[in-house]
Amino acid sequence: MGEGHLAISVENLKRRFPGCDALGGVSFALPRGAIGALLGPNGSGKTTLLRVLAGVLAPTSGHAIVAGQDVTQQSLEARRRIGYLSETAPLYLEMRVGEYLTFRGGLYGLSGSHLAKRLRTVLELCQLGDVQRRVIGLLSRGFRQRVALAACFLHEPDVLLLDEPTGALDPAQAQACRNILRTRSPSQTVLFSTHSIRDAEQLAQHLLILNAGRVAAWSSPADLIQSMRAADPGSPVAHSPLEAAYLQLTAPPVMVRDPTTSGQPS
C-alpha cells in the first residue's frame, strides 16, 4: 500500500519518560477512511501513542505521519487536520452547548455562514439539537461526550484520534457514540483506544494491540482470530474469539513483534 493511501504511518516510534519506556518501538499504518481500534492493558502505551500522534507529546525517536504531515516537523499543520479527544474531555462546564461549539469553531478559524453550517451539521450528527441551549455542566456524561465529539468533528478533520470515547458510558450512551462514528464522513479515518472488545468488534477493520509499550498484534479482527486459532487449535474458547485472542496476546510473558518487520493489516 502506497504512502498516499495511508492516513497514519508510524515507524519505530519511541517515547521515554524518566524510568519508563512508554512506547518501545511501535510501527503500524492505517489506510485512509478506515477505523482502527487500539487495545491493551492499562499502562500499555495507548494514551501515550494517541498523544504523540495528536502532537501533544513529542516522540523520543522514530517517525509518525498523520494526514500526510510529520507530527514532529510539521506539527501545526498536522494538528489542523486532526480531531483529538482526550480521555477527559476538555469542556467548559459553565458554557451552553451551542456557545461552546461556536467558541471551538472560532479556534479552528471558522466563522460566518461556514461556521453556522458546520454547527448545524455536528449538532445533527451528534444528536444535540434538543440540548444546544443547555448548560454543559447540567448534562449527563453521555451528552457531554457527544458535545466533545461534536467539537472534534467541527473543522472536518482528516483523522480522528479518540481516547476511550465510550469509557464510563452506559450501554445506550455507548451505542449512540458508536453510531456517531459509523455515520462520519467515509473519507475520515478513526483511531480510537478502548477496553471494550465489543467496540473493537463492531467498529474496527484494523486492530492494534499494545502490551508494555510494544506491538503485540496489528491485524484485521478476522485475521487475528484465525492466526491465534492456528497457533493453538486445541485451546478451549471460553470467551468470544476476539477476546480470547486479546487475552492470549496480553498475558505474561509479554508478546511483542519486531517493529522493523511489522506490516500493515491485510
Structure characterization notes:
The protein has 266 residues and is of the alpha/beta class. The chain has helices spanning 46-53, 75-80, 97-107, 112-125, 141-153, 171-182, 197-203, 221-231, 241-250; strands at residues 6-17, 20-31, 35-39, 61-66, 69-70, 82-85, 159-163, 189-193, 206-211, 214-219. The strands form 2 sheets. The chain has a 6-stranded mixed β-sheet, with helices on both faces. A 4-stranded antiparallel β-sheet has the order 2-1-4-5. A hairpin with a 2-residue loop joins strand 1 (6-17) and strand 2.
Structure summary:
This protein is α/β, with parallel strands linked by helices and 266 residues long.
Note the topology.
Layout: E1 6-17, E2 20-31, E3 35-39, H1 46-53, E4 61-66, E5 69-70, H2 75-80, E6 82-85, H3 97-107, H4 112-125, H5 141-153, E7 159-163, H6 171-182, E8 189-193, H7 197-203, E9 206-211, E10 214-219, H8 221-231, H9 241-250
Helix pairs in contact: 3-4, 8-9
Count every helix, treating DSSP H or I runs of 4 or more residues as helices: 9
Helix/strand-derived class?
alpha/beta
Major sheet attributes? 6 strands, mixed
Indicate the percent of residues in helices.
25-40%
Outline, from the CA principal axes?
A: globular
Strand-residue fraction? 15-25%
Order of helices and strands: EEEHEEHEHHHEHEHEEHH
Low-confidence spans? 258-266
Overall mean pLDDT score?
Answer: 88
What strand line-up does the widest sheet have?
A: 6-7-8-3-9-10
Instruction: Give the distance, in angstroms, between the N- and C-terminal Cα atoms.
Output: 10 Å
Q: Count every beta strand, where a strand is a DSSP E run of 2 or more residues.
A: 10
Query: What is Rg?
Result: 19 Å
